[in-house]
Structure formats: structure tokens, C-alpha cells
């Protein structure tokens, strides 16, 4: 496989912009593509405010055309977490990317094997799961689809290491490693709150100080986004077929109410400057 010199990133949201920043800071040419021009403007503002340096900014090019990614040696997809939309993108990328290019997904939970099936190059499709925020978090979880080749795996691992990351390798089963373990813990924290075992503050404080976690599970859920947590629990429940993964009704209710966490200024906790009167369950 040719040396990776140019990285394409699709999706310039919180993950894609961070991945593009990492690649540019590590000496690679980058094309960052998003269908939404406002997202590209926000990404440029976020990356330039992180003081990545002039060289990195020069290596970073923004586009709203997928065609521009045809020179990339690897394309990392970081668009929204929907299997149908990602499959359509992988199919389009397969027609645009050079034949040697790797197509990677930053999905939190969707099957790499199924994304690969939308292409004619399943051996060159892989999961490259960065943690949030990508420039800071140390881990990249690499997921091998059913047909991912050793060559693709080795090249992807080397790229993550070039970014200074620690890698772990997961087989392609729902939730991979990190979310398979983290999300049921967060879901159980919701059950603990739902059944009145303790207050949200005591649940978070108990896990922070009792198990040495930097954040409590409910604060962490607010940071990740309760909608994201719910969608991953649904993938675990459906993909692994065990009722222990059923989403907690309180998590479902919060999402139904639009309490999605920090991004909406209300989730388990209320981050608004003027909180409204809390419901009894708050
Ligand atoms: N947020 C997290 O903590 C986190 C952590 C790890 C992995 N992920 C995964 O990373 C991916 C992106 O998550 P995010 O939080 O950055 O989302 P986001 O909503 O911040 O960004 C998604 C971007 O994709 C763009 N987009 C959507 N469809 C597109 C298309 N067809 N073509 C081009 N651009 C398109 C949107 O305009 C948006 O700018 C998801 O798969 C998510 O599961 C998220």
C-alpha cells in the first residue's frame, strides 16, 4: 500500500474537524469536505483558534465537493450516525477515491462490515474510531470488518500512531470495545437515578471518587449527548439481542423531551444561566 500523504475527511462537525486538524498538524495534506458550508466555516474557525500553526493551516483545504477527495490515500468518514446515509456515502466514495485508497469510518457503533458491503473494495474498508475531542484524547479504536485486509489494518494503525495515539483493535461487533462497556455503565447510571437509588450528584460523585473516573457517568452522558447514548444503546440492544442492553426509560424520556445534554444546555443537569423549576425527578 502506498505511503499515506493525503487524508480526506468527510464531515466537518466536532469529530471531523478535530481529525482534519490532527492530520494537518502531523504533516499530511488534508481535504476536509462537508455538505454544509456553515459547518466548514465553523471548522476553520475552530481549527485556526487552536493555534495549529501556519504550516498546518496551509496543508488544510476545505471543500463542499466530494470529487476533491480523489487524491486522498485514506478517507475518514465522520458524518452523522445513520447507517443508510453512511452506506450511500461509502458507495459514492468508492466511485471517486483512487483504487488504492482506504475508506475508514469514525462510526461509534455501526457495522463496518455492512458499510464495506456498499463498496467494491471491502478489504480496504475499516473502522477508525477517534474519541472526542480527537486532538486531545489518546485512543483510536481500530475495527476490522469481516473482509478488512491485514495491509489496510497495518496502514491505519500506523497512521493513528503517527498522530501520537494509542490503538486498540476490535472485531466488528456492536459497540466495539469502548462503547460496549461504557454505554451499559451509563445506562445503568440512568437506571440508578430512575429507580430512586440516589441523586444524580451522588451517582456521579460515587463513581468519580469510588472508581477513580475523571467524570461521573451522568455528566459524561451530557457531554457525549443523550441522543448519541440512546442511539448506541439501541444498536447494542438490536445487534447483540440481549434485553440487558435495553435503553433505560428515563434516558428515552429525556431524549424525547429534547434534553440532549450540554449541546442543548440541558440533559441530566441544567446548564442554562437561568434554570427553570426542575421536575421532581431532577
Ligand atoms: N460526538 C462524539 O462524541 C463522537 C465520538 C466518536 C465518534 N463519533 C462519531 O463521529 C461521527 C460524527 O459525529 P459528530 O459528533 O462529529 O457529528 P456532527 O453532527 O458534529 O458533524 C457531522 C457533520 O457531517 C456533515 N454531513 C452530514 N451528512 C453529510 C454528507 N452526506 N456528506 C458530507 N457531510 C455530511 C454535517 O453537515 C455535519 O457538519 C458519527 O458517526 C459519530 O457517531 C462521535
TrEMBL record:
InterPro entries: 3-OHacyl-CoA_DH, 3-OHacyl-CoA_DH_CS, 3-OHacyl-CoA_DH_NAD-bd, 3HC_DH_C, 6-PGluconate_DH-like_C_sf, 6PGD_dom2, NAD(P)-bd_dom_sf. One of its GO terms (biological process) is fatty acid metabolic process. Residues 7-172 form the 3-hydroxyacyl-CoA dehydrogenase NAD binding domain. GO terms for molecular function: enoyl-CoA hydratase activity; NAD+ binding; oxidoreductase activity, acting on the CH-OH group of donors, NAD or NADP as acceptor. Transmembrane segments: none annotated. The keyword NAD applies. Keywords: NAD, Oxidoreductase. Belongs to the 3-hydroxyacyl-CoA dehydrogenase family. This is 3-hydroxybutyryl-CoA dehydrogenase. It comes from Thlaspi arvense.
Amino acid at each position: 500500500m502506498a505511503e499515506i500523504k493525503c487524508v480526506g475527511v468527510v464531515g466537518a462537525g466536532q469529530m471531523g474537524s478535530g481529525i482534519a486538524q490532527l492530520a494537518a498538524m502531523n504533516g499530511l495534506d488534508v481535504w476536509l469536505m462537508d455538505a454544509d458550508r456553515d459547518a466548514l466555516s465553523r471548522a476553520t474557525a475552530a481549527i485556526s483558534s487552536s493555534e495549529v500553526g501556519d504550516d498546518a493551516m496551509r496543508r488544510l483545504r476545505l471543500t463542499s465537493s466530494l470529487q476533491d477527495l480523489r487524491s486522498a490515500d485514506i478517507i475518514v468518514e465522520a458524518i452523522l450516525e445513520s447507517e443508510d446515509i453512511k452506506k450511500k456515502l461509502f458507495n459514492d466514495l468508492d466511485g471517486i477515491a483512487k483504487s488504492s485508497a482506504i475508506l475508514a469510518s469514525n462510526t461509534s457503533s455501526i457495522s463496518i462490515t455492512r458499510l464495506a458491503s456498499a463498496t467494491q473494495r471491502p478489504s480496504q474498508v475499516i473502522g477508525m474510531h477517534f474519541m472526542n475531542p480527537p486532538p486531545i484524547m489518546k485512543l483510536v479504536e481500530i475495527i476490522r470488518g469481516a473482509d478488512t485486509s491485514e495491509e489496510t489494518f497495518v496502514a491505519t494503525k500506523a497512521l493513528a500512531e503517527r498522530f501520537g495515539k494509542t490503538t486498540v483493535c476490535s472485531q466488528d461487533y456492536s459497540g466495539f470495545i469502548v462503547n460496549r462497556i461504557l454505554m451499559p455503565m451509563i445506562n445503568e447510571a440512568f437506571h440508578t437515578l430512575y429507580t430512586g437509588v440516589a441523586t444524580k450528584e451522588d451517582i456521579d460523585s460515587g463513581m468519580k471518587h469510588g472508581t477513580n473516573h475523571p467524570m461521573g457517568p451522568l455528566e459524561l452522558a451530557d457531554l457525549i449527548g443523550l441522543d448519541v447514548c440512546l442511539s448506541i444503546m439501541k444498536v447494542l440492544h438490536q445487534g447483540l439481542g440481549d434485553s440487558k442492553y435495553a435503553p433505560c426509560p428515563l434516558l428515552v424520556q429525556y431524549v424525547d423531551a429534547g434534553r440532549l445534554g450540554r449541546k442543548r444546555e440541558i440533559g441530566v443537569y441544567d446548564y442554562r444561566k437561568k434554570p427553570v423549576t426542575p421536575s421532581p425527578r431532577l
